[in-house]
Amino acid sequence: MTGPTPSTPPTTPTTPRSVQVPELLLDRITAPSFAARIFGPDRAAYLAAQLPATDAAAAADRDAQEAALKTRVNWIDNAQESKIRELDDLPADPDDPATQAYRARIRARFAELHGERERLEAQLKTLAKTAPVAADLTLLDCLPLAGDVLPDLPPRLKARLFQVFDIAVLWNKPGGQATVRAEITETTLQAVPGILDPGQDGYDDTGTGQPVPIGHLDNAPRSGRVPHPLNPAWGR
What we know:
Elements: E1 19-21, H1 23-38, H2 43-50, H3 55-89, H4 97-128, H5 155-164, E2 168-172, E3 177-181, H6 186-195, E4 228-230
Helix pairs in contact: 3-4, 5-6
């Protein structure tokens, strides 16, 4: 809910699907989204500016996503064909370690491309089953205007809040950008009042409502912090 997903390079075997971050860093990343886009008074305006307002706009958005996915699939097809030709051109000399190592790397790259293609094709199938409709903002009206409540919650309730909103974070390290995604369902609406009840043990209703300042995202302090999973690939 922090804006369009930034462009990121395809996942490779050297890119972990998830990493761990200290609790204060997770607060730093997610607190602004909760304060402004989930529990803030201008949340509907933020979401309306991000999502399609008409069925036609939703259809155009889906078509654009489909075209981008198909373009990438076609690129993978060509890349795999190139790898096959490259492998065919290599001399079959079992006594040449350099050639054998080169063959192994070509096969590894081909397998990597194959895995990416499978993921893209799964996304295309899901997209084909999705009916494009205009954004419905009514669920936001059912959430309280709690403001910057995240820093005041104890770890147990904070973890529960992340869970009911199905929080996923895309961390684009080269661009130094984190994109937070939240999902609101009927289950979310039922759980939020209990999570935000200030009468619970550990709830800090005397805090400033501001996350503790920390360093740059790449150099956050880890000592004494509770690690949380952070998914660098978009979770849906």
